[in-house]
Amino acid sequence: MDQVEKLIHDMLNEVLPSAAFDIAETIIDVGSAVVPPLSTIGSIMKSHSIRKLKKRLDKAEPELRALKTKIEASEYETFYKQELFPLILNYICEEDEDEKVSIYINGFEYTIDQGIAELETIFHYYDVLAELRISDMVRLFNQYIPKRHDKLELKLNLRDFVKYENDPKYRDEWNAKEDITKYIDNKLIRLGLVIIDKHDGLKELEEALNSPNRRTRRRDTEYKLTRFGNRFVKFFSEKEK
Predict the structure, then answer these.
(1) Tens of pLDDT along the chain (241 residues)?
(2) How far apart are CA 103 and CA 109, in angstroms?
(3) Burial class of residue 25 in the structure, from the number of CB atoms within 10 Å of its CB (0-12 exposed, 13-18 middle, 19+ buried)
(4) Largest Cα span, the chain
(5) CB of 173 within 8 A of CB of 204?
(6) Which of 33, 122, 149, 189 has the largest count of CB atoms under 10 Å?
(7) Residue 136's closest CA among 93, 180, 175, 101?
(8) With contact defined as beta carbons under 8 Å apart, do 1 and 59 qualify?
C-alpha cells in the first residue's frame, strides 16, 4: 500500500471502520455500472476510474496530508472525513480536466479553515465548480478586478480596432473569440456568478441634457460579480502563502 492508498484508507477507515469501503464503492461509479464490492484499497486502484483518481491524488498528496492534519485538529473531524472527503473524491474522480483538481482541494482547505460544516452550503459551490471548465475559470478569475468595482470587461485597443476593420481573416478570428467569450459570460450569468451591470439610462440622459458640451460615448456591456460570485471566488482561490 503506497502513501496515497494509505491516506485514503486512513481518512475513510478511521471514522467508519465498518462502512469505509461501502463509501469507497459509491465514489467509483463508471457511467451507470457500479464497481463490484471491494475488499482492499489496492483492489480499488484496479479500475480505470480509480487509476485516474489515484494519479490525481498522487500529485496532490502533500496538500491532502496537510489537510488531514488540519481535519484531525478540527471539531468537525467526523463530518470532514465521513461526508465531505468522499464527496470531494467523487467530484475529482468525475472531473474531465486535471487542472481543476487543485481548485477542488482549495475549496476543501477553505471549508476546513472556516469551520464550515453545512453540506448543503458546500454542495452549491462544488456543483457550480463542476459545471465550469478551465477556460471559464480563467475568464472569471483573471477578469476579476476588485479595485474597478468587480468589472469583467472586454475591450478592443486601437491597434486591434484598425486590424479588425481592415483584415477579414483577423475579424473572423476575433468574432469567433468574442462569441466564445459571450458564451462564457452567459454561462457565468446562468450559474449566478456574474450579473450584467445595468446602466441608468435616464440618469445618463439627464446628465447629457444638463451638460450639452459633454461628449457622450456608447458604453460597452459590463459585468460584475454577484454576491455569490464573490463568495465563490473566495471559496476556491488559492490560499496566500
Answers:
(1) 577 777 777 777 654 444 334 444 444 443 333 344 444 455 545 566 777 888 888 888 899 999 999 999 999 999 998 889 988 988 998 898 998 999 999 999 999 999 999 999 899 999 999 999 988 888 887 776 554 434 444 444 555 556 666 778 877 877 788 888 889 889 999 999 998 876 555 555 555 556 655 554 545 567 788 999 999 989 998 876 5
(2) 10
(3) middle
(4) 80
(5) no
(6) 122
(7) 180
(8) no
Give the list of residues 6+ apart from residue 5 with CB closer than 8 angstroms, or none. 41, 42, 45, 54
Question: If we measure between CA atoms, which residue out of 139, 144, 150, 29 comes closest to residue 94?
Answer: 29
To which residue does cell 482547505 refer? 109
C-alpha dihedral (130, 131, 137, 141), degrees to nearest 10 = -90
Cell numbers standing for residue 187 = 454561462
With a CB cutoff of 8 Å and minimum separation 6, the contacts of 42 are 1, 5
